[in-house]
Amino acid sequence: MQANEWVGGIVALPSFVSGEGEPYRPAALVLVEPDSGLIVGTTLARPDEVLERAPAMFLEATGAPLVGAPRLPSRVRVAAPDLFAALRDRVGDVDVVLAPTPELDPVVSSLLRRAAGSSFRASRRSVFLAPRSVRARRPTSV
User: How confident is the model at residue 36 (pLDDT cuts 50, 70, 90)?
Assistant: First the structure.
């Protein structure tokens, strides 16, 4: 199945991971499908590994998206030049475009709000690994 476009970005999370050497703040690669407003992929990585792992993370999301059937977008749009360089020519026939990604703003805000409002114990359940309830557009009613 072919999807029209996904938008992607890397988010530095506010919490720290420890127990694996020096504590670090994980980075999340977040992929949103603007047509549906759904988060189709999100993966955590060490900040110094996220760009290197981004193509594999992207391809994993196409084969097993968080929501819906496997699908390959015709293009992925990213705003960060380093993510653009990491994905370009490394994700098959998908067109990688460097352009603004305003659709990610509400998703990132929601993820960061949820992370800031949760205790360490609650964050271990990892709202970032299964954010199916978070949509790229704001709800019309509460």
Answer: confident
Number of domains in the chain: 1
Judged on CB neighbours under 10 Å (0-12, 13-18, 19+), 45 is middle
pLDDT for residue 125 is more than 90: no
Asked if residue 111 is part of any domain, the answer here is: yes
Strands (E), the chain: 2-12, 27-33, 38-45, 72-78, 95-98
Q: What is the pLDDT of residues 58-82, one digit of tens each?
A: 999 999 999 999 999 999 999 999 9
- Domain hosting 115: range is 2-123
**CATH code assigned at 103:** 3.30.420.230
